């Protein structure tokens, strides 16, 4: 029986070690999260039978069209994600693998992340209310805005909440809806001064928006590159940077004029 040379034996041992390492790598949990298009919600409507935006202290108006906030859904921070999950997401347009700490920056605790997301949502709602009332010249001591939306956290709905409050109170200021009767979706943080900020996950949010009937998508201008990479057919992008700029773009859209583009 022939014997293996020292070189052949070394190669065989190395190959076996590599094979074991590959098997271990394939089944070892990775510090990533799989994300996909999440739910959308029309802020001018209801959530589980409750108005998402409730306003008292000033007259409100009936609205048509929709202003849909969009979300992404992610595996929980304590879920095990393996190489096979990442490989599958790589070949799918409706999934993506993202570093876990970029999706869950508050660590691996479900409770800690849920608490942080709820606080970010509360802060976002306060900023959205401040931006809307400031734009309308209304005092928060006289006008009360309550925002209700279950199962959604984080700050990325700020811009849409602001637009929803303005639409319910004033519309375009001349009796027309901000939407012009369209289904408009969008994402972006907002501060009390009306500055729109980036949020992440835009390609998947665009898919969620298009799935729920949106034809226009408001995106922070800083995320134009991501927004155009996998833009669904039939969805028109409008990049925005400020609340005033967003309202001006929507006015141009209603009037059939050219709107900003990426």
What secondary-structure arrangement, pairings included, does this model have?
Blueprint: H1 6-27, E1 32-42, E2 46-47, E3 50-51, E4 53-56, E5 66-74, H2 83-90, E6 96-99, H3 100-103, H4 110-136, E7 144-147, H5 158-169, E8 183-186, E9 189-190, E10 196-197, H6 202-211, E11 216-220, H7 224-229, E12 236-240, H8 243-255
Parallel strand pairs: 5-8, 8-11, 11-12
Antiparallel strand pairs: 1-5, 1-6, 2-3, 4-7, 9-10
Q: Provide mean pLDDT, rounded.
A: 87
What are the segments in which pLDDT stays under 50 over at least 5 consecutive residues? 16-26
Helix content: 25-40%
Please provide the count of β strands: 12
Number of domains: 1
The dominant shape is globular
H/E series, N to C? HEEEEEHEHHEHEEEHEHEH
Q: What oligomeric state do the depicted chains represent?
A: single chain
SSE-based structural type? alpha/beta
Radius of gyration: 23 Å
CATH topology: the name is Ribosomal Protein S5, domain 2
Descriptive account of the structure:
- With 262 residues, this protein is an alpha/beta fold.
- The protein has one domain (37-73, 109-255): Ribosomal Protein S5, domain 2 (2-Layer Sandwich).
- 39% of the residues lie in helices and 21% in strands.
- The chain has eight helices and twelve strands.
- The protein has helices spanning 6-27, 83-90, 100-103, 110-136, 158-169, 202-211, 224-229, 243-255, and strands at residues 32-42, 46-47, 50-51, 53-56, 66-74, 96-99, 144-147, 183-186, 189-190, 196-197, 216-220, 236-240.
- The strands form four sheets. It has a six-stranded mixed β-sheet. A two-stranded antiparallel ribbon has the order 2-3. A two-stranded antiparallel ribbon has the order 4-7.
- Strand 11, helix 7 (224-229) and strand 12 (236-240) form a beta-alpha-beta unit.
- Helix 4 (110-136) runs parallel beside helix 5 (158-169).
- The longest helix has 27 residues, at 110-136.
